Amino acid sequence: MAECDAEWELCKENIQPLRQGRTISALHQALCQQQEGNQTALNQKKQAFESELRLYDGDDPLDVWVRYIKWTKQTFPQGGKESNLSVLLERAVTRFTADKKYHNDARYVELWIEFAQGIGTLQAALYIAWSEEHEKRGNLKMADSVFQDGVKCGAEPADKLHAFHRALQARVCRQMMSSMTDQQRDEDDDDEGPADPQRSSLAELKARGKKKAVVPINRVSASAGYARGLQFKQPLGPKQNSRLAIFDENKAETEPQEPKFEIWMAPPTARAKENEQKPEKWSNVKLPLKSRSGLSVTVPPPKPSFQPFVEEDDQPPTVTPCKINPAVNPVLSARKPCRPEQTPLKKLQERQQLMQLQTQEDGKSREQSMYCRELLDSGATEFCFEELRAERYWQKHTH
Amino acid sequence: MSKTLKGITLKGSAELVAEFFSFGINSILYQRGIYPAETFARVTQYDMSLHLTTDSKLKNYLTNVISQLKEWLFDCTVQKLVVVITCLETNEVLERWQFDIECDKTAKESGAPREKSIKAIQEEIRSVIRQITATVTFLPLLETACAFDLLIYTDKDLEVPEQWEESGPQLIDQSEEVRLRSFTTSIHKVNSIVAYKRTDSM
Fold this sequence. Notes:
The structure holds 2 protein chains of 2 kinds. Chain A is mainly α. Chain A is 44% helix and 0% strand. Chain A has 14 helices and no strands. Chain B is α+β, with helices and mostly antiparallel strands. Chain B has a single domain (10-157, 171-197), classed as Cell Cycle, Spindle Assembly Checkpoint Protein, Chain A (2-Layer Sandwich), CATH 3.30.900. In chain B, the strands form 2 sheets. A 5-stranded antiparallel beta sheet of chain B has the order 5-3-4-7-6. A two-stranded antiparallel sheet of chain B has the order 1-2. In chain B, strand 6 (175-184) and strand 7 form a beta hairpin. Chain B: Its main location: nucleus.
């Protein structure tokens, strides 16, 4: 170990600082191993994690991912492609999107933050969404301070941010006023019975009971046109209850869609990745024929085995039949309209379209894998049957 | 402290070591962001560019400490100097830079200069300060506002001056320790260790 002691100093340019620091022992080990080119230990550990991902049957599968990621971070001090960290994060993050249990798990959220890597910290949209989340939870103070943070960071576009901020302030005022009128109303009329004694938050103000005065409320949001998220643009029906409008998918079509805020339904697609082509079916893929203009004469392009889709209104331009007197000019004749699918480029395009169609159909899949496909590719790398089987075997024989 | 190759006396050694601490502590304060970077000025020392604070209060404090330290170094009664970095809010110790000082007490009696050139000593000091700078590669980010404190371990029978108070060692529980390079003037030997809190979050 002695000769490795100063290793970290010699390699300091190749060590990415971590927010939480590095364990020096792991750092030494990683650097020494790299120098010796000793990859087996690394691979073994990696393999162990991979198989644990697949064979874990406890009730906290996220734990394995978290440990795997932590280990990766400590073991690959220079980060980069070979650490596979970005893939790991992406897999881990997408893996549990549907799992309600983890939505507010601190570790999971940390993974997301790590994955996002400071994306959007200068975007007004982030602060707007963030603030709205606070507002929805009734934490108006936080909602306001988030906006102020956004302004401080100089998030762009600033005017959008300011517009939302004003809208928020207006909503807060409105809410306070309505809570005051609601109190009054409760004192005024009791014939409503126990209907709802509580003021429903974020709802439109109504003229209720004997009081007919309606506070003119839509000024700001209407002029700014930014009432999204909160349902201010709801048509004011007299029968409508003053509750927060709940989204009903059956009614959804009839109601005007409000401009939706872009939420990340899925993680952003990773750009600039290499070798990302997924395995696909090769059996009926044909090598596109190289039909240069010279060659196409000798090798006639094979007739496609399918009926190319032609738009109904996409008729080939009809050539007005012109009468040419064959006696006058026997050489020239009316040229037949060139069949579009004959040109090599068209052919290529069609072939690709067909392949896409096929893969789409495959995707819809009457295809059913009769093996545990999820297990094989549920980790960061792909496993083969034998690896999985071996793991099971060893597990059985060690217990 | 003329740059002759005559050797080094106890007094010169104490001065060299004290000077190292002055630059070393300033470097730590700058590198770890305990004080804002604007309050530091660049100076050239040991053939490299270092940062010294321009904050008058901090400057005063450090000069006081260093001059006191110099006395103790001359008396060979100091054992350790520790820079403790604590979280301002929770008072939790986050980082601890410990410099163990070994004094050769025989130098007090003999008084004969030792055979080691200043150049060679400064070369060693430079590599220690370089390492202090390089530690950012593995130290955790100090995310909260932090304060620092200086602890000096002396021999037990020493009278504590008025401005100084006694304190505990301020150790970190669950810490990670990294030994840095050491240097020696052949009278004083300084070993450096940095300890930092191990965190479990992602």
